[in-house]
């Protein structure tokens, strides 16, 4: 995963949410299905996504991996959400929606409880975080010239 700084999609905010790179083994990309409509950032505009099928998420195993993240209560406890691992579907029980820690807008994703053994990571906190890849503004920093 290249080094990318993910930020709040709203140009008036752009709060830093998380940095992804190869060294950050707490983050990987997974496919998710279901859940609420999430913020969708495209061409500088923020809207709600039109589909909840086969979306890409950053799966974050620990809240402390984030630079800044907010959580809110879900509007519906009945929404079903699942992720796909090795062609199998793993249910995620939605506990929270992810929001921007600074402007409170969202949802940018989901926090939920998952069978940790299905993730092959029985350690870590109770909740697993799913940040929708299209919810965020992706800033690719210029390549550093460190040697
Ligand atoms: Zn924000």
TrEMBL record:
Gene3D superfamilies: Metal Binding Protein, Guanine Nucleotide Exchange Factor, Chain A. It comes from the Eukaryota. PROSITE patterns: MSS4. The keyword Glycoprotein does not apply. The keyword Coiled coil does not apply. GO terms for biological process: post-Golgi vesicle-mediated transport; protein transport; small GTPase-mediated signal transduction. Keywords: Guanine-nucleotide releasing factor, Protein transport, Transport. One of its GO terms (cellular component) is membrane. GO terms for molecular function: guanyl-nucleotide exchange factor activity; zinc ion binding. PANTHER family: GUANINE NUCLEOTIDE EXCHANGE FACTOR MSS4 (PTHR13276). This is BA75_04284T0. The gene is DSS4.
């Amino acid at each position: 995963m290249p080094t990318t700084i993910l930020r709040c999609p709203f140009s008036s905010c752009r709060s830093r949410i998380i940095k992804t790179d190869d060294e950050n083994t707490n983050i990987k990309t997974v496919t998710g299905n279901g859940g609420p409509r999430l913020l969708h950032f495209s061409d500088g505009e923020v809207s709600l996504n039109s589909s909840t099928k086969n979306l890409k998420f950053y799966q974050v195993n620990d809240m402390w991996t984030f630079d800044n993240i907010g959580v809110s209560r879900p509007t519906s406890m009945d929404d079903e959400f699942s992720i796909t691992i090795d062609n199998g579907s793993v249910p995620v029980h939605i506990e929270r929606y992810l929001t921007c820690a600074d402007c409170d807008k969202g949802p940018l994703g989901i926090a939920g409880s998952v069978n940790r053994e299905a993730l092959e990571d029985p350690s870590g906190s109770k909740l697993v975080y799913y940040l929708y890849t299209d919810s965020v503004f992706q800033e690719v920093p210029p390549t550093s010239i460190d040697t």
